[in-house]
Amino acid sequence: MKKILSLVLALAVLLGLFSGITAVAENDTIKIGTIYAMSGGKAAIGENILRGIDFAVEEINAKGGINGKMLEVVRGDHAGDPATGRSEAERLITQEHVDVIMGCHMSVVTEVVAMVCTQYKVPFITAISTLDKLSDEAHKDMDYFFRLCPLNSVYVEDMLMFLKDSAEQTGEEIKKVAIFTDRAAIGQELIRCVELFKDKYGVDLVAIVDYTSDAPDLSAQVLALKQADPDAILCDSYIGDATLFVQTLKAQNYTPKMIVAKANGFTDPAFLTNLGASANGVCSVVEFNPDLTNGKEINEEFKAKYGVDMNGHSAESYTVVWIFKTAIEAAGTTDGEAVRDAIAALDIQGEFPGGRKIVLPYDHIKFENYDLAGEPHYRDNIYASVAIAQVQDGVWKTVWPFSFTDTKIQYPAPLQ
After folding, report:
1. Cα 77 from chain centroid?
2. Is domain 29-150+294-381 classified as CATH 1.10.60.30?
3. Which stretches does DSSP call E strand in 58-159?
4. Where are the domains of the chain?
5. What is the pLDDT of residue 51?
6. Which of 45, 154, 368, 381 has the fewest CB atoms below 10 angstroms from its CB?
7. End-to-end CA distance of the chain
8. Matching CATH topology for 29-150+294-381 and 153-286+387-404?
9. How many CB atoms sit inside 10 A of residue 227's CB?
């Protein structure tokens, strides 16, 4: 009996030692949870975003990680569904024990994940979700949620500002605009923001043409646009619909004078792969472009690894990883409340401490509460801004603001 008891005690001690070793190993890792579409129709967007995350994590780990601890990415797949996003957030927090979360590239998913993160006090940054209301008064108490990217309002106002400024090069003023967009939340935001700013920029909204996501045919929509005869079409679509839209324009032999997209599917790497020369002339908001001064060196390293340039999605997700690094180092801990407070206090100018330059078309990152068009907003990056690029010779080239580039606008849009 004594021998049996001795064996039991020895085994218990041994198990305790292994448990301690496991705990130490886990404590030597800082876990970043990611929630993007890895399956379904939006998986191509998710794959591109994850490249930016992985690239930043590899850079940081190669230089010793964060306070000597390695970063580990734990992936969640929302598959384009808010309910799945909620369950994935809960899984990452309660089962995977992630320290921070980033996501989700669809604002409706981002909203529910932000609620979960606030409930569990896990810091959450969206690199990409632009829906204005995510940071409005109704979401004031989601105080573990921060947004890096510009709001839809900023995107759309810059699109209209570009149309106004384009006359300096084209010699023709843009007076009539039409909207072509998804019936989902992204489309409703485009419509709302154009309505908000159109009078300020002196444009007449002559048509709103929408469709259901993953439309099998857009012939009726393109015909409606052709009949409205706008000077410019403002668009927001995911990759499949963006590709089909341009293909349908070609099929109907319709070449609008100007097409300006609010990124999303139009700046997905697959857009140019799918369309080739047919995409020439399309303009889009860009959060990053390889010919911008910021980030050229980093983009070259990224392209050498993945075979594609960074775009806005991968550049912004890359940037969020560096923000987490900076905040965790400042906090000196992965405690959720301390990291949240450190993010709120960040004031990054030019480059990250001990790290890389800000790769986006601005050089200052700071999260603040502020008023936008008379409405309060909370925890947005107040310096976020965008540029406009145009597909020329099969490549996105920055054409606005004019001070960013020597490339001139091609007008009318030379769709082939």
Report:
1. 16
2. no
3. 70-77, 100-103, 124-126, 145-147
4. 29-150+294-381, 153-286+387-404
5. 95
6. 368
7. 88
8. yes
9. 11
Q: For the chain, give the number of residues.
A: 416
Pair 166, 258: CB distance under 8 Å: yes
Average pLDDT over residues 270-279: 92
Q: What is the CA radius of gyration of the chain?
A: 23
pTM: 0.79
CA distances from 405 to 90, 158, 408 (A): 45, 16, 8
Furthest-apart CA pair in the chain: how many Å?
98
Average the pLDDT over each of 15-19, 32-36, 74-78, 106-110 and give the range with the smallest value. Answer: 15-19
Q: What distance lies between CA 353 and its chain's CA centroid?
A: 23
**What is d(CA 272, CA 162) in angstroms, rounded to the nearest whole number?**
22
DSSP label of 62: H
| CB 361, CB 383: distance < 8 Å | no
CA distance 357 to 349: 9
Q: Are 301 and 56 in contact (CB under 8 A)?
A: no
Superfamily the domain 153-286+387-404 falls into: Response regulator (3.40.50.2300)
Exposure b/e, 14-51, CB count within 10 A at least 16 = b: eeeeeeeeeeeeeeeebbbbbbbbbeeebbbbbbbbbb
Position with higher pLDDT, 66 vs 293? 66
Q: What would the pLDDT profile of 365-409 be if each residue is shown by its tens digit?
A: 999 999 987 889 999 999 999 999 999 999 999 999 887 788 999
Q: What is the DSSP string of 359-373?
A: -SSSSEE-EEEEEET
CB atoms within 10 A of CB 84: 19
| pLDDT number for residue 12 | 42
List own/partner pairs for 263-266 with CB under 8 A and 24 or more apart. 263/155, 263/287, 263/312, 263/386, 264/45, 264/186, 264/236, 264/237, 264/238, 264/239, 265/45, 265/237, 265/238, 265/239, 265/240, 265/241, 266/235, 266/237, 266/242
> Which residue type, as a one-letter code, is found at position 314?
S
Per DSSP, the residues of 265-332 read GGGSHHHHHHHGGGGTT-EEEES--TTSSTTHHHHHHHHHHHSS---HHHHHHHHHHHHHHHHHHHHT
